[in-house]
Design a protein that fits this description.
Structural class: alpha+beta
Largest sheet: 3 strands, antiparallel
CATH architecture of the largest domain: 2-Layer Sandwich
CATH class of the largest domain: Alpha Beta
CATH superfamily of the largest domain: K homology (KH) domain
């Protein structure tokens, strides 16, 4: 997987992933133009959609309905260093009874984003002055 992010203006950035465009910005109260979600909000969306994907796969495999499935994700901020310190994922799944509740919980906990956040991934950062690969150049 790979993405390319470039600065747009003010506090906004544009990311290109597989031809899809995502704009992140800050709210007006934080000096942005509110052109998109903030990076932490995007992380919440990533965790929520991943949890939803794993939930629907579990339900589909058991021929259970996933109509009305909703995933709610919230986070609490931490300091030193600044970060999202804890997450809460709540699933509203009307079709699941007690029999499948634990299985659904295990499925959601197996989500790629959940596992990434709970296992401290390695992050390597470098600064360089080079032309990006042509396949990653953002165009309008």
């Amino acid at each position: 997987m790979r993405s390319s992010t470039r600065y747009l203006d003010g506090k906004s950035f544009e990311t290109l992933i597989r031809g899809h465009r995502i704009v992140c910005d800050q709210p007006i109260s934080e000096g942005g133009a509110d052109l998109g979600v903030t990076p932490p909000e995007l992380l919440l969306a990533s965790l929520g959609t991943c949890a939803g994907h794993y939930a629907t796969e579990y339900l589909r495999a058991r021929s259970l309905s996933f109509n009305g499935l909703a995933v709610y994700v919230s986070a609490e901020k931490g300091t030193q260093p600044a970060r999202l310190a804890s997450f809460r994922v709540d699933l509203d799944c009307p079709a699941v009874g007690d029999k499948d509740r634990q299985g659904l919980l295990r499925a959601v906990r197996a989500c790629l984003i959940h596992n990434t956040l709970t296992t401290s991934p390695a992050i390597h950062v470098s600064v360089f002055d080079a032309t990006p690969e042509p396949s990653l150049v953002l165009t309008r």
